[in-house]
């Protein structure tokens, strides 16, 4: 049963307030804390996906021309896995963790109890509109929170479908979807939330965090950046090329936060690399990639124009070594490779988020590290090499959300690895248990007894007490005995 | 100022602070600083806040020594990457999470525990390999001067800097780009810090405050337990900086029939600890400055509030001293019951039934700590599950601060983020995920052109349905 609020003509500040009030009342009543409620909601999510896969695939095709396989696997299958993991492990995650206590607080016992934060706001992105909306749900529900989801208006078919499905399958008194664009998002951001999770770009992230600051609301920001791929020689070039292609054009045609953005390789190796790309790209997408059904399109004309601006810049357009074709009416740009664009070009100074792949060449592979660290910290960084020392240097020197060696993007599927950014690529992390933790407050609990009340804690303060305190805080039993016996100096 | 920060950034870039030996040497130097300057530290704390050496040792010097020693003993373990499990499907692969320093961090500390709140975060920042700018509070000027003069004598000047100054310096610092900001202080300033951090997408930890209540349910147990309860309440209110502490007991909740027993016990304990009256007050800090003094005095100006005073109430403006004061049931809408008191005034709120404490506490914003003196296990469970706070401590006050294995931080209006022990290290680190893959074997269905076979393969793969995969590959499953 969709709430009346979403059916109103205008979703304004008052509507937003009402939504939060309703959810807060549900939270305070304890609905979402109940283990059974959490299980039911997660199971409902699974059922929702099982019973509506064709509709979800269709919506993604509408919004992004996303190939069925990408929708089925990268959005639906990944979500189902995530959901199943949460169902399996939730009870364990919910259990308090014992904490060690020291001599300073003897006798005592301590634990850390996970409790829900309350009412959380999830603002998701348009490129994986299903996954990025519902993956945070899993963590938020498992942790016992009430949720408002604001899906991106740039993927409207999926946003509507989400609104409909969530209303039909999940508990609307605790979980709601609010559709809309800037005005609706602004109205939501004015409210007081217990946590906000935002997936998107740095510009909006600043607005989200500034709004959160007014209420001291903690935030998780999953942003992006220019994810570099360093390609060394002496590797299995065919496999490396295929994995880069899969991570670039195979992921929503390069429109993914962890897609390889650009490549760095040595001047000597560049020609071989480009040839390998040409060969594999043709195998994957055929001679006329603009007609391949296995590539998403560019999401809308704004982004299409943005990408063409990057491509058609004077000093850049001459560097195209493969591709460059475009079809405006279908919003398609062919997989395009550029060689040695200037460092000050537009394409090297903003996150590309599209099917253009610049290759930058350097003299030695080691030079790539400085190149990467001179820019903003990306969400991911990749390196293909068999050289152990280089691997170690890469891991040590390159700061990014996550690193993968000899592959691209697959760390996203690894629930035991925290997924999040650092610096300009974001703050906070999720996936697996990290999702549960990110939507929980870890409350410290100390149990003390009445036995063993040390008078040295209390006034009157004397030198003897000072000596004893020093020994106690120093944690040495011998020190304490000495102090008690009056052998140590105060 | 900009030059200092540029230097911190340069130093970080050179990678010197990442080395474990650098971190250890800095921590050892900090320990030396504390050990060799104990008397000066006691003197500065006495000057700024009237703290006695025992209180200073217990709450500042001792805490810091313990923190550094603990960190030194655990550092190698914390810095080591943690292995993460990888499913068979990815074989051969290795996954790990490696902590890395964030870069250049800014620490704002508060005036009430001017050493602990400045140096404890510093310990975390250094142990995680960052360069640091520390901005101590100018409301504790002797302590601030001490830090400005002494830290450069012991620590690496190129990596750790201390800046003196007031709010204007703080504002200027907030305009610059940091890799992390750690702030201890009031919610009002916390909002400003976070808003400034938002411009650069800088992550923040905010250690704020709130009205930390003490629920008292142990007065009708044994006389000795009742006495210990009273001692711990008095120790938890006036012990730390005469109530000017984020984790001090703000107010007490007790059943009305036990209120007078509690008040009598508290009076006796106060007299024994601190003296009979304001003239003979000892073993207690003073109010930090005239502004705070006036604020506290104003809380008592409301006639209904003044009427509820059952002990104390005297003030000495010259010495900036307010004697331990107990109030019984001041009006719930008075300022003293809606603002964080942060001073030596203790309201006692009576309830018909002690279980009503839960609703009372929930009617206010989440505090940093909830103290509950009770032996009723059911009540303890209810408090844990029906209230929200940074920490809950049963049957004592303040000591949770000493527990390095418990995260120390708030929730809601009392802040977010946490530290102490390994949490300090974590709060100044980025946990970087790393996945190592081999070139073989290759999973062909990963690549286009897409076919139904590949779709089915991947579906089974994502479910980790290895058996199903084998069937598919052997031709026993149809796509």
Structural features, described:
The complex is a heterodimer of chains A (490) and B (479). Chain A has 490 residues and is an alpha/beta fold. Chain A folds into 3 domains: 13-223 and 432-442, 3-Layer(aba) Sandwich (Aldehyde Dehydrogenase, Chain A, domain 1), CATH 3.40.605.10; 228-424, Aldehyde Dehydrogenase, Chain A, domain 2 (3-Layer(aba) Sandwich), CATH 3.40.309.10; 456-485, no CATH class. Chain A has helices at 4-7, 13-28, 35-51, 53-64, 68-94, 131-142, 156-169, 182-190, 202-214, 237-248, 267-285, 301-312, 314-317, 367-373, 388-397, 433-438, 463-474, 477-484; strands at 97-99, 108-116, 119-123, 146-150, 175-177, 195-199, 219-222, 228-231, 262-266, 320-322, 326-327, 332-333, 336-339, 356-362, 380-384, 402-405, 426-427, 440-448. In chain A, strands 10-13-14-9-8-15-16 form a 7-stranded mixed sheet, sandwiched between helices. In chain A, helix 3 (35-51) runs antiparallel to helix 5 and helix 4 (53-64) crosses helix 5. The radius of gyration of chain A is 27 Å and the shape is globular. Chain B is of the alpha/beta class and 479 residues long. Chain B has 3 domains: 1-208 and 418-432, Aldehyde Dehydrogenase, Chain A, domain 1 (3-Layer(aba) Sandwich), CATH 3.40.605; 213-388, Aldehyde Dehydrogenase, Chain A, domain 2 (3-Layer(aba) Sandwich); 443-474, no CATH class. The longest helix of chain B is centred in the N-terminal third of the chain and has 27 residues, at 53-79. Chain B is globular. The model of chain B has no long low-confidence stretch (mean pLDDT 94). Strand 18 (440-448) of chain A pairs parallel with strand 16 of chain B.
